[in-house]
Amino acid sequence: MLPTEQLMSEHRLIERMVTLLNHEFSRVQATKQVDLGFIEIAVDFFRVYTDFCHHGKEEHILFGELEAKPLLPEHRAMMDELIYEHIFVRRVLKELLEAKGRYEREDNKAFSDITRTMSTLSTFYPAHIEKEDKHFFPISIEYLSEDERSHMFEAFYKFDSSLIHELYNEKVLMLEQKQK
């Protein structure tokens, strides 16, 4: 198995969540009611699993390794575009979380912001995943030697095994700073 296949396997779980998001988006449009519990779980999934864990491996490990390689200009441009897309989706998730809070406070504009961000996420992820799976990953892996690929698996494992500790350390630090 190639390290990029592990990332593609993670994409399958993200796609399942996008399917759920699409169903929820349709329900919200039909009923004009937001399930705040669903929004909370979806934002948590996309922030923790998709961004922190999955994008973390892409950006810090795969892209980090590729950064030192003499990539063709079009491959470097694609990698830069993927990084930009990760930044973009972080902003959309922040907007969704903020809109959820405003919806809880009965802000009239919050409903449209929630549906707009849900729609954005639903259309963003399939295109982003296809770009990685079908275009970037197949070419990026060719830049890596067998030894580098093997080390990347080890780095992925180490990254995943420390993830929960880093996540909750970050949450405690955030709460500590709020109390100051």
The CATH C-level class name: Mainly Alpha
Mean pLDDT: 94
Note poorly predicted spans: none
Compute the number of helices.
Answer: 5
Could you say which structural class the secondary elements and strand pairing correspond to? mainly alpha
The proportion of strand residues reads: under 5%
**What is the helix/strand order?**
HHHHH
Can you put this structure into words, describing what you see?
The structure is a single chain. It is built from five helices and no strands. The protein is an all-alpha fold. Helix 1 packs antiparallel against helix 2. The radius of gyration is 18 Å and the shape is globular. The model has no long low-confidence stretch (mean pLDDT 94).
Summed up:
The chain is mainly alpha-helical and 180 residues long. It contains five helices and no strands. The longest helix has 34 residues.
